[in-house]
Input
Amino acid sequence: MADNIRTVKHATCTFCGCVCDDMELTVDMDKKVITKAKNACVLGRAWFAEHHIEDRPAAMIDGKEVTVEEAIEEAAQVLAGAKFPITYGLSDTTCEAQRQAVAITDIIRGTLDTTTSVCHGPSGLAFQGVGESTMSLGEVKNRADLVIYWGGNPAESHPRHFRYAVTPKGMFIPNGKKDRTVVMIDVRKTPSAPVADILIQIKPGKDFELLWALRAKVKGKKVDPKIEEITGVPLSTINDLVERMKNCRYGVLFFGMGLTMTRGRHFNSGALLALATDLNEFTHFVAKPVRGHGNVTGADNVVSWQTGYPFGVNFSRGFPRFNPGEFTTVDTLSHGDADAALIIASDPASNFPKAAIEHLKTIPVISLDTKQTLTSKIAHVAFATATYGINTTGTVYRMDDVPIPLRPAFDSPYPSDEEILTAIRKRVHELILSRRGARGATGEAKVASKQVL
Amino acid sequence: MAKSESMILIPGRTSKQGTSLNKGKLKDEYIEVSTTVEMNLDDMTRLKLQEGDQVRLSNEIGSTVVRCKGRKPEDLPAGILFIAYGPPSSQLMGSDTAGSGMPLSKHMRVSVEKVSA
Output
């Protein structure tokens, strides 16, 4: 057995939006590997076991190894010289790195977007239109006696979500799961189904119709029994669910991308949020999207603090403008608008629509990632960076907007995202100032630019 | 020509996809997971498909070839396909976001046909 073993208590797993902060890591400091992750789920164990030090260059330009400084200079030149640069990703890095990315995009008057736009972006639009009756996961643990999952499969995507919402004993839930009713609504029987007391299988693409029928019944309106032909859900099941929702003490609707990625998008999320609001005439009811990547909630928070909007923000006029469908990355790429891309901790070359990927291949891409991906393979400038939460400190946000600090396990030879982005930010600032100075920028503009830093 | 049939494809997350992407998206395990489509066993029988057979999924956007894996009818309804997110499902995804920023990434209508060995 190795001698140089370190234990890290209260470490945080940043694989998914649960951001579990009760990890106990056993670290072989000689080999720089995590040999055990106590309390981790199957996804967390893989996250900690597979993020070790890889043998690849810290920086490359067009596939050739260069120094980090050379790569930073090239990245800054590309971004400062672009007419429509975009920044994208950000959900798998720290809030501190996210701040730097916002500043870079502001300085270069680019377009800023995060993976939220292809995740719960539609829910973000619905929040603005309908509002959000919300809570922390601790509240759910202590109070919720009716838990509804809609369009999600937490057993596979967020395995420890159940420790907040299903299994734990809480202040007003003394018997844990026995005191709760769990409902799953989905188009298929997923591995989450065994947790459910009630399983409701809905026809694909009919979420809005079922949500509207539920709203109607909550408000005491008649619903045509033909609703079963449309949604696949009998009226008797709808009536039963409505009675349970109105008569519970504390109800919660968790919703996944089964709502946001399908026909209806933000209308689906809006209908669910409106249903939660309606139910507050009868009892206490809340709703919360189940967020995916480790710090996607942090990305929403940081971008909102700094620009006033959560994603899809354009700075080309010198102030932030929000317009999903125009300034979101699938659109800026598919329409051929973007002429350079800064991609942080994300892999659009793998996950985006074909047309967007084709355009991404034609423009200079600067990528920061802990692993090789299809995006880093096509990148003009590719940085290998340290893994947040395993090699770096920082702050992340749990899916219920609770900030959580990171406790790293071992050092990485690679720089952090924050270090790379800070260096790029400083250099693009110099380049932009010198160009504006050459064009006779005003004193106010220079002062304003310094305030960004 | 092999018989084709229209079905609804649902891309989503799985545990195996989640664990394999930690090893690396360019590694064999992730490629294997993201190129396997789950299909109702009754549909497989009707299309004369065996476990592991290759099928072509195509729509107006593009096409991709993946291996099929059977699921019991009570777990996956007839006419529904499930695949882990990845490059093959992206090949079938349209780029129109209808002003939302979100492309339709689930419930994609696709044509399914067996690829002859």
Remarks:
- Residues 4-114 of chain B form a domain with the Barwin-like endoglucanases fold (CATH 2.40.40.20).
- The helical segments of chain B are 15-23, 28-34, 41-46, 87-90.
- Chain B has one domain: 4-114.
- The CA atoms of residues 3 and 46 of chain B lie 10 Å apart.
